[in-house]
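Re: weekly structure request thread

Next one in the queue (205 aa):
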Amino acid sequence: MIQVAVIDYGIGNVQSVVNACTRIGARIRKVNTGDQLAAEQDHAIIMPGVGAIGEALAKLRASGLESALIHRVLDEGVRFLGICVGMQVLGEICEEFGTHHGFGWIPGRVRRLAAPGSALRLPHVGWNTVEPVGGGWMAAALENRHFYFCHSYAIDCSQQYVRGRADYGAPFVAAVEHGNICGVQFHPEMSSGAGEALLYGFLHN
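Done, posted below.
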């Protein structure tokens, strides 16, 4: 059975992610410190996230999770999936409520979906299709499926990392991949069968 570490840092639909992964046959352990993450070997790591990126980064750093993630993901090559804010922290800079320095694993900047004063309502909440970009397991998981979004920001990065785009007033990056590092702006744990298919593809790629 595949063992997955789900990062529980007080921000995100952690139990929903645990439940979705359990339904597709994974064994889950929730971790909330760097020491806990380093204590066992996992096939993959999933980091959910909801809310403000500044708070998320502060919690990840205070708990030692960022340094443990660097070792497990960058040094050891463990597969990683960031969800929503868990994807946004992968960027270099985020512009939400000031300027925040992310992990820098995906070169790019996290920007607001619409300029202040725009008629576009934020956050963007609801079901959207995601257009696959390129091939591979993620393109197959995204094709002709709807996913649930709840966000006001999205990463702006080079096309080489983009695996999916969605549209809300204008196109935005909805999925990225860089080696063993993946991220999705939507919530697979809240996207019914489509989300579970994506999680299964991630864990079995």
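The chain has a mean pLDDT of 94. Residues 3-204 form a domain with the Rossmann fold fold (CATH 3.40.50.880).
Next request, please.
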